[in-house]
UniProtKB/TrEMBL annotation:
Catalysed reaction equations from the record: L-threonyl-[protein] + ATP = O-phospho-L-threonyl-[protein] + ADP + H(+); L-seryl-[protein] + ATP = O-phospho-L-seryl-[protein] + ADP + H(+)
Molecular function in Gene Ontology: ATP binding; protein serine/threonine kinase activity
Keywords annotated in UniProt: ATP-binding, Kinase, Nucleotide-binding, Serine/threonine-protein kinase, Transferase
Record carries keyword Ubl conjugation: no
InterPro entries tied to this protein: Kinase-like_dom_sf, Prot_kinase_dom, Protein_kinase_ATP_BS, Ser/Thr_kinase_AS, Ser_Thr_kinase_AGC
Keyword Kinase among record annotations: yes
Biological-process GO terms, alphabetical: intracellular signal transduction
PROSITE patterns with a match to the protein in the record: PROTEIN_KINASE_ATP, PROTEIN_KINASE_DOM, PROTEIN_KINASE_ST
Name the UniProt record assigns to this protein: non-specific serine/threonine protein kinase
Similarity comment: Belongs to the protein kinase superfamily.
Length: 388
């Protein structure tokens, strides 16, 4: 018993020292990607911004993690010099996974994502989401009091969701999913995609150019089909926003970031998701811990807010909150305004996504919907494939 107590005390003190040290040396407190190869002591870290939607693109669009890149990294992010690997380029070997990092792509709910080369299949690129587990838990026991109490369960929920997605063969859900772990990290390995819907919207905002009609209609239909495909597998996403819809090289959307997903039909009220996109009924009511919310119905509200983002002019100012959503809705006309209005009804009156499929202005007919659902329609535009 004394030995066990000593081990836990040592780990706890190391953890506290690590957290206080990192907070004093770095101005960023977001997710961290660190490689801990099984066959080597080499490691690498890249610290993302404090926002979950922040990107690591400032690391260099296609720069490998090499010596010239190292100096820029230290200058921009104040990362301690000893955090860089002696192995160059960084490599992960964990179970069946053997990948070499290329560059950081961004951060998500519970981890950061890097583009990597699959050494088992030369020429194949993969997206690797790395989640540090030893910083927050030891065999399910939380070492620090200030961490998310649901952290462990959410990692498991994300894996369950990804496994269900891979079994669906849907063009809108992640395929070719693999999992691995070592002593320090969990790895989710998936296909990478060129850009997100958020990237596309920002491009149009930056240039003040509206999205062409065929593109707009295509992505509105794609968002509805993507979330409906998820709901049919019994999964509620609970963090739907443009940044979590990737645009594949064939022009189809793929839903990502299942860190808040659930297979439960209802949950106790607690704020889940991103400001401006989560449904109002998820917010707790003081003195009423018994109140629940319907998870898939909450997703429908989020879908409506994503559709608003697509429909609004690039010059419109995004105003979050319930009043902001209503003011944004006034800028949308025609059938699409009616569709979005339905998604913003009180939760007990809000229709399911299947009802939106047949709403005026959505699909021309049942055949068009089924053809798109099966991935047989050709997209009006496709982004350039992702490369090193």
């Amino acid at each position: 018993m004394n030995i066990l107590t000593s081990v836990i005390s040592y780990l706890f003190s190391s953890h506290v020292k690590k957290r206080s040290s990192s907070s004093s040396k770095s101005k960023y407190t977001g997710s961290v990607v660190t490689a801990y190869p099984l066959a080597s002591s080499a490691s690498t870290s890249c610290t993302a911004g404090s926002s979950r939607a922040d990107s690591c693109e400032s690391f260099g669009d296609s720069a490998p993690l090499s010596s010239p890149f190292k100096s820029k990294f230290v200058e921009d992010f104040s990362v301690p010099e000893d955090s860089f690997p002696t192995l160059n380029p960084p490599r992960i070997r964990a179970g069946p996974v053997d990948v070499t990092f290329v560059r950081c792509l961004g951060s998500g709910t519970f981890g950061s994502v890097v583009l990597a080369q699959d050494n088992n299949q030369p020429g194949r690129l993969v997206a690797v989401k790395s989640i540090i587990k030893s910083e927050y838990m030891l065999e399910g026991f939380h070492i620090a009091d200030d961490v998310y109490p649901l952290y462990c369960s959410q990692i498991k929920a994300e894996r369950i969701a990804l496994e269900k997605c891979a079994e669906s063969y849907s063009p809108f859900l992640p395929q070719n999913v693999n999992f691995a772990q070592d002593a320090r990290l969990c790895y989710f390995i998936m296909d990478p995609h060129p850009m997100s819907l958020d990237n596309l919207l920002n491009d149009h905002r930056d240039t003040s150019t509206p999205m062409p009609g065929p593109f707009l209609r295509w992505f509105i239909q794609q968002v509805v089909c993507a979330v409906l495909a998820l709901h049919r597998r019994g999964i509620a996403h609970l963090d739907l926003k443009p940044a979590n819809f990737m645009i594949k090289s064939d022009g189809y959307l793929c839903t990502i970031d299942f860190g808040l997903s659930t297979t439960s039909e209802s949950l106790p009220r607690r704020v889940l998701g991103t400001t401006g996109y989560y449904a109002p009924e998820v917010v707790p009511v003081e003195g009423r811990p018994d109140l629940m919310f319907d998870t898939q119905t909450a997703d429908v509200y989020s879908v409506g807010q994503v559709l608003l983002d697509l429909c609004l002019s690039p010059d419109d100012v995004v105003d979050f909150g319930a009043e902001g959503a209503m003011s944004r809705l006034q800028e949308v006309n025609g059938d699409m305004a009616n569709v979005v209005r339905k998604t913003m009804l009180p939760w007990c009156e809000r229709p399911g996504l299947k009802n939106l499929v047949y709403a005026p202005g959505m699909f021309e007919n049942e055949i068009q919907y089924r053809t798109m659902k099966d991935g047989l329609l050709k997209a009006p535009w496709c982004p350039a494939p992702l490369s090193c």
